[in-house]
């Protein structure tokens, strides 16, 4: 239940149904987002390959090729490394007029074989979608011709710009134990190692002595949760750290924060940052991957080096010490998010790409 998955579903929900008949194919028809897909009226077809290599992958690939031909599919859009590697070649074999692979991450996969196979899939695809200009440049460096790179950023829904009323905010504050005088810094992220939430906990410890009302809210869950709890305990800030668990995407929990943070070591283009900007929150984020494509240093927030808790704490203090500056940065971020990442603007780019059959094939 990450940014890639949510973005795919939100895109499908908003494509022009008068022009596009959308169907989902997946490698496992289960998970927390499946009810939302089915509630949206989308048919879901599962291709249970088990692994990327082997007899099941080949059999299901042949089945996919037949399915694509039978359904008369015009566009096949793979969204992650697994569907790039497995799906793109069979979609080309089926003669689909437009086959799109995607790069929505920054760091390479931990498996060298997957990296090699994924780059091969890029060569098989008519287009490779990058979710930020920085990722697009990375694709070109990896050998994808510039004319085949399609940059389509993650978008933010119109409703994300609308402040929720107190019927949402007040119960959330009570549940999390937040009081009127608290300074609230928040992060919304999966608790994965690459998100480096430990750096935020260490920054909290640096600020704690001078800011008695500072609280850190972590929204999400994952394998790193126990490690983060132990780290906070060892630094003496357990009472300042609030694990909020997973929460619905809208209304965004960013509305509860004074400052929103993302301290990842690698990002293609983070949904969380754009959601924070839509909520008018100043952002402190690590200058990695596509983050600088969203956050303008000194204008909509601050960028810091990855893993540098001292720099992170210093920039947080600047915003917490100057509420008027923080408010102005948040307002600038909301304007930037609306202009560059609004749903109408982004979906227009994608829909235009779907309707353009490539003149040449790779």
Order of helices and strands: HEHEHEHEHEHEHEHEHEEHEHEHHH
How large a portion of the residues is in β-strands, by DSSP E? 5-15%
Topology, number of strands: 12
Q: Major beta sheet, specifics? A: 6 strands, parallel
Spatial order of the strands forming the largest sheet: 9-8-7-10-11-12
Helix count equals: 14
State mean pLDDT (0 to 100 scale).
92
State the end-to-end CA separation.
Answer: 33 Å
So what's the overall shape?
A: elongated
Q: Using the CA coordinates, give the radius of gyration.
A: 21 Å
Class computed from helices, strands and strand pairing:
alpha/beta
Helix content percent band: 40-55%
Stretches where pLDDT is under 50 for at least 5 consecutive residues are none
Task: List strands and helices in order, with pairings.
Blueprint: H1 3-14, E1 24-26, H2 34-39, E2 44-46, H3 55-71, E3 75-77, H4 81-93, E4 98-103, H5 112-124, E5 127-130, H6 133-141, E6 149-151, H7 166-176, E7 183-188, H8 197-208, E8 214-219, H9 225-235, E9 241-245, E10 259-262, H10 271-278, E11 283-286, H11 291-294, E12 301-304, H12 309-321, H13 323-341, H14 343-354
Parallel strand pairs: 1-2, 3-4, 4-5, 5-6, 7-8, 7-10, 8-9, 10-11, 11-12
Helix pairs in contact: 3-4, 4-5, 8-9, 8-12, 10-13, 13-14
